[in-house]
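Hi support team,

I've been running sequence recovery on a batch of backbones for a student project. Most finish fine, but this one hangs at about 90% for roughly twenty minutes before it completes. I'm not sure whether the input is malformed or the queue is just slow. I've pasted the structure tokens below so you can try to reproduce it. Let me know if you need the job ID as well.

Thanks,
M.K.
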């Protein structure tokens, strides 16, 4: 049976509202959850000192932290300044993750642009290689770069691209966003095959994932988040697949209901005999 870490993408605000990130970590544990993703999606606005404080609280509360880097990242832009700004945002995210003890920095890597998927893949690989070299020089060896599977076909982030990149670059791992994958596949998902691909490729390493339902508009699935109960995709089949596998996985709830839906998912996991680590 799977070992699971589960929590919200951001500080709790529905079941019990948290005041700030450090308080959010405390509330996560009080709710019976054991993970939280720190959201820098609009910019890295947390000071190094605040990050260290969050880390102290997380260690005391035994909450597994991850970080989501800003949305404004495009490692395949034709504009050199945009690429440099993207690398700076990634570096700041890695620095704060290191200071707080967060194990992975999640990000959307790029849009394909004029060069198409192949050129973009090479650019992403090159620039992440440079970032990994900088991390090594600074002694940051406890943070993984998590390249997220994306929902849109004009974005870098297919299963093949993210897993392929991770095989080439030590220190990079795919982040499986189940809602994004469902949308990218036009409304279908095979949880078992993706879980098995992870296990075959990375063994006992923790698989970092996101979960939310997505909207259906004008005949297609789009990257807009809905409550988990909407069932696009359904969560229960994932819980069922996890109940028959020996796999380590963290699941970050990105639903608009955050902590409320994280507890909803916890109940479903428990229905299949899965207790959080």
């Amino acid at each position: 049976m799977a070992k699971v870490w589960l929590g919200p993408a951001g500080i709790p605000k529905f079941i019990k509202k948290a005041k700030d990130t450090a308080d959010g970590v405390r509330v996560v544990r009080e709710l019976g959850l054991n993970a939280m993703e720190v959201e820098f999606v609009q910019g890295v606005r947390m000071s190094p000192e605040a990050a260290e404080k969050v880390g102290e609280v997380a260690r005391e509360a035994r909450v597994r932290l991850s970080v989501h880097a800003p949305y404004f990242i495009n490692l395949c832009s034709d504009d050199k300044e945009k690429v440099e700004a993207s690398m700076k945002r990634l570096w700041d995210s890695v620095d704060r993750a290191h200071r707080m003890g967060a194990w992975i920095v999640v990000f959307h890597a790029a849009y394909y642009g004029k060069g198409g998927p192949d050129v973009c893949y090479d650019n992403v690989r090159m620039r992440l290689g440079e970032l990994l070299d900088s991390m090594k020089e600074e002694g940051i060896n406890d943070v993984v770069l998590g390249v997220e599977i994306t929902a849109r076909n004009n974005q870098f982030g297919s299963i093949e691209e993210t897993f392929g990149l991770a095989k080439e670059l030590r220190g990079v791992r795919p982040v499986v966003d189940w809602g994004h994958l469902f949308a990218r596949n036009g409304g279908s998902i095979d949880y078992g095959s993706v879980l098995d691909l992870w296990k075959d490729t990375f063994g006992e390493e923790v698989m970092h994932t996101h979960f939310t339902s997505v909207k259906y508009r004008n005949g297609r699935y789009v990257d807009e988040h809905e409550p988990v109960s909407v069932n696009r995709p359904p969560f229960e089949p994932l819980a069922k697949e996890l109940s028959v596998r020996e796999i380590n996985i963290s699941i970050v709830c990105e639903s608009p209901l955050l902590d409320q839906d994280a507890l909803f998912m916890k109940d479903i996991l428990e229905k299949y005999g899965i207790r959080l680590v």
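--
Follow-up from support: It reproduced on our side and the slowdown came from queue contention, not your input. Residues 111 and 155 are 4 Å apart (CA to CA). No action needed from you.
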